[in-house]
């Protein structure tokens, strides 16, 4: 759709394509805190700590599904975007961030649906359990049974514990 005339203005491309909600983004940026960005793709959960700069956002720390497999011993045949994998990604990102001196952030879920107990909030619980200060409401977090993966398989529950232990030692 082309905008013609002196009173019409073309919207930003990322807004036209439905990729960015600029109002929500500005509200987050005004706080001055780093953003804990969580994105769930078709294959994995990506957790990043991002700082705003006028020239562009700077990604300070990034943990994804491949990182938890390679560094922290997540089973190679297990899902990298499940609720337990999302929790481990958030936990690893927060531990790395705290070690680098970043103790607080604000959660950025982008345009993802904010359904209570979903994978984004599993990553949030991982970040909070690791010791990061992020404002949230208790009602959105998933149950501990789902975090531990007991709804999937007993081996996943063991993998969650082993990965947490590996992250603690790193």
Entry summary:
With 170 residues, this protein is α+β, with helices and mostly antiparallel strands. Helix content is 41%, strand content 14%. The chain has a single domain (15-134, 141-169), classed as Nucleotidyltransferase, domain 5 (2-Layer Sandwich), CATH 3.30.420.100.
Shape descriptor reads globular
Percentage of residues in helical conformation: 40-55%
Q: Structural class, judged by helices and strands?
A: alpha+beta
Largest sheet: 4 strands, mixed
String of helices and strands: HHEEEHHEHHH
Q: How are strands sequenced across the largest beta sheet?
A: 3-2-1-4
Distance between the termini: 52 Å
Number of helices in the DSSP assignment: 7
CATH class: Alpha Beta
**Uncertain ranges:** none
How many beta-strand segments? 4
Beta-strand share of residues: 5-15%
Give your account of this protein's structure.
The protein is an alpha+beta fold and 170 residues long. The protein has one domain (15-134, 141-169): Nucleotidyltransferase, domain 5. The chain has helices at residues 13-16, 22-30, 65-70, 83-99, 119-130, 144-148, 154-169; strands at 34-40, 45-51, 58-63, 105-108. The protein has a four-stranded mixed β-sheet, sandwiched between helices. β1 (34-40) and β2 form a beta hairpin. α4 packs parallel to α7. The longest helix is centred in the middle third of the chain and has 17 residues, at 83-99. The protein starts with 12 loop residues before the first helix and ends with a helix. The model has no long low-confidence stretch (mean pLDDT 92).
